[in-house]
Write a structure and sequence with these properties.
Layout lengths: L10 E7 L6 H16 L4 E8 L9 E8 L9
Amino acid sequence: KGFVPQQDVGIILGISEASQDISFEDMARRQAKVARIVAEDPDVAAVVSSVGTSGVQTMNSGRLFINLKPRRERDAS
C-alpha cells in the first residue's frame, strides 16, 4: 500500500540491478535496452536513464525516471 501513491503524478521511478561482477559497459548496454523497451510504451512521454555510482547507487544498478503522458492521453489505466 505504501508503494503506490494515492494520486497519479505521471512519474515512475524504476530500478534495475544486475550481478555484482558485471562490467560498467555491460550494465550500460543492458540499461539502454531496458530504457528503449520502456520508451516504446505508447503511454510513456520520456525516459531518463542512469547507471553507476552516485550516492547509494552502485555500479551494478541503474535508475529509470519515466515520465508518462497526461492521464487523459494514456490508454492503460
